[in-house]
């Protein structure tokens, strides 16, 4: 069968250290942002939006503390991924596992050794690591000391951390992402930047200043990476998803333009090397004056990223009419309910064609290779009496999205790979739940932390194995 995917297309899956590793204080690890967040039943989202609740609270259960204990199960888990045929595995390095306080004089050798072993196992199994340097994992100590990325000094601390891991893993890891969903700092500053904006006079000023620091840091480590190993491939990562106009009213059409610009703002800088023209008016109208140090604009221009990775779960729908703006439940991105789309159990609207649209729009805009590094369906999976997990709904979702990705490639979009999110069940970032499952591999763990942690294969495990083996030809 013919397939639009090139022979070396990187099929795989994605996780994040803070959502799967557990072992939250093992071998000298420091606290991460998520380590002070409770489960959904005790106000996780409220704590994300008001970090003082997280810093001051004493909760009954912290999901990240053990999670699925990937820290101690990674060899068996990677073996299952290899059985599916993974060509790549996207994970992240926990910054506080390497520098427990973010500003330590020396890195934590035990943390470095863990990732040595993890990447060695990937290489042994023929799986290419794709590593995110900061995936919502700024050390908690830096938030307490200096309000995280709001402080320019964090740039140098991040650069120091990146230098350590680049040199340590220069012969094991080729593909790197500087920040996970960098635009998330606008919607969840705690996650995105380890900052608390609730007590600042102008939250947007604080947020965009922190964002500037991250953009400068991204450019600096891109330079650093190429100095250490010219063969490194450095990419950015966007929480993607096209915004549609609610009606054909020109006001709604313009609202969609503004929504998409806000989403692409960071990638405009990381890919093109300069702030977009539309940012000037936005900054002026929102009383934002960036403190730009000497050399910042030059480093941004000189060291853009080489490829653009992004997550895609759903499209969005926007209106200029305040009476219409009743948001649906779901992701942190506010969106109207699209009457033409079905939704997941968590209110995320399912739009495979939106992935094709997003990919075409991004490639037209940047003309750089794309990498779909998150996509998937969060759902309640219930094992049958004999232990089977029949997740046909997940297979249907993923099949349609892989087809849409293939269509985009046939449209002329260059795409390097596909790593569906939560390829093994893990703790949800937003809700802290385990019942919101994405994986091909089921983990016996519930929302309260009960369960044996035993792994088992869902029906989608075998489906995805066939997809990879056929290079995307066998979808249905």
UniProtKB/TrEMBL annotation:
<dbReference type="Pfam" id="PF00232">
    <property type="entry name" value="Glyco_hydro_1"/>
</dbReference>
<dbReference type="InterPro" id="IPR001360">
    <property type="entry name" value="Glyco_hydro_1"/>
</dbReference>
<keyword id="KW-0326">Glycosidase</keyword>
<dbReference type="GO" id="GO:0005829">
    <property type="term" value="C:cytosol"/>
</dbReference>
<comment type="similarity">
    <text>Belongs to the glycosyl hydrolase 1 family.</text>
</comment>
<dbReference type="InterPro" id="IPR017853">
    <property type="entry name" value="GH"/>
</dbReference>
<protein>
    <submittedName>
        <fullName>Glycosyl hydrolase 1 family protein</fullName>
    </submittedName>
</protein>
<keyword id="KW-0378">Hydrolase</keyword>
<dbReference type="InterPro" id="IPR033132">
    <property type="entry name" value="GH_1_N_CS"/>
</dbReference>
<dbReference type="GO" id="GO:0016052">
    <property type="term" value="P:carbohydrate catabolic process"/>
</dbReference>
<feature type="active site" description="Nucleophile">
    <location>
        <position position="374"/>
    </location>
</feature>
<dbReference type="GO" id="GO:0008422">
    <property type="term" value="F:beta-glucosidase activity"/>
</dbReference>
<dbReference type="InterPro" id="IPR018120">
    <property type="entry name" value="Glyco_hydro_1_AS"/>
</dbReference>
């Amino acid at each position: 069968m013919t397939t639009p995917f090139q022979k070396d297309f990187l099929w795989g899956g994605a996780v994040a250290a803070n959502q799967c590793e557990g072992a939250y204080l093992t071998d000298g690890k420091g606290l991460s942002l998520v380590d002070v967040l409770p489960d959904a039943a005790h106000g996780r989202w409220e704590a994300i939006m008001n970090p003082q609740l997280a810093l001051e609270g004493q909760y009954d259960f912290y999901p990240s503390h053990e999670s699925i204990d990937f820290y101690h199960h990674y060899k068996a888990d990677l073996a299952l991924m290899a059985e599916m045929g993974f060509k790549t595995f996207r994970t992240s390095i926990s910054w506080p596992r390497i520098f427990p306080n973010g500003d330590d004089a020396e890195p934590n050798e035990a943390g470095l050794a863990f990732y040595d072993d993890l990447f060695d196992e990937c290489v042994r199994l023929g799986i290419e690591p794709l590593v995110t340097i900061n995936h919502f994992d700024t050390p908690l100590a830096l938030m307490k000391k200096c309000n995280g990325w709001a402080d320019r000094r964090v740039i140098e601390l991040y650069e120091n951390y990146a230098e350590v891991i680049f040199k340590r893993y220069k012969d094991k890891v080729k593909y790197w992402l500087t920040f996970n969903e960098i635009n998330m700092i606008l919607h969840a500053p705690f996650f995105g930047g380890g900052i608390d904006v609730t007590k600042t006079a102008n939250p947007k000023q604080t947020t965009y200043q922190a964002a500037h620091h991250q953009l400068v840091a991204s450019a600096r480590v891109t330079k650093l990476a190429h100095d250490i190993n010219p063969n490194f491939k450095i990419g950015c990562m966007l929480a993607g998803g096209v915004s549609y106009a609610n009606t054909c009213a020109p006001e709604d059409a313009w609202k969609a333009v503004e929504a998409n610009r806000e989403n692409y703002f960071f990638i405009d800088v990381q890919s093109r090397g300069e702030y977009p023209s539309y940012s000037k008016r936005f900054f002026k109208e929102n009383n934002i004056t960036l403190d730009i140090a000497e050399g910042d604009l030059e480093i941004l221009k000189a060291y853009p990223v080489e490829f653009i990775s992004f997550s895609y779960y759903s499209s969005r729908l926007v209106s200029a009419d305040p009476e219409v703006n009743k948001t649906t439940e779901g992701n942190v991105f506010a969106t109207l309910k699209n009457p033409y789309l079905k939704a997941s159990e968590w209110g995320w609207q399912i739009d495979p064609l939106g992935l094709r649209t997003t990919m075409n729009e991004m490639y037209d805009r940047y003309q750089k290779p794309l990498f779909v590094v998150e996509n998937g369906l969060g759902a309640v999976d219930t094992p049958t009496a004999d232990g089977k997990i029949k997740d046909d709904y997940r297979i249907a979702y993923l099949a349609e999205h892989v087809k849409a990705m293939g269509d985009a490639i046939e449209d002329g979009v260059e795409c390097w790979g596909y790593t569906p999110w939560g390829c093994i069940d893990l703790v949800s970032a937003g809700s802290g739940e385990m019942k919101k499952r994405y994986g091909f591999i089921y983990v016996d763990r519930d929302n309260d932390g009960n369960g044996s942690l035993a792994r088992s294969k869902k029906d989608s495990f075998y489906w995805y194995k066939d997809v990879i083996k056929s290079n995307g030809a066998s979808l249905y």
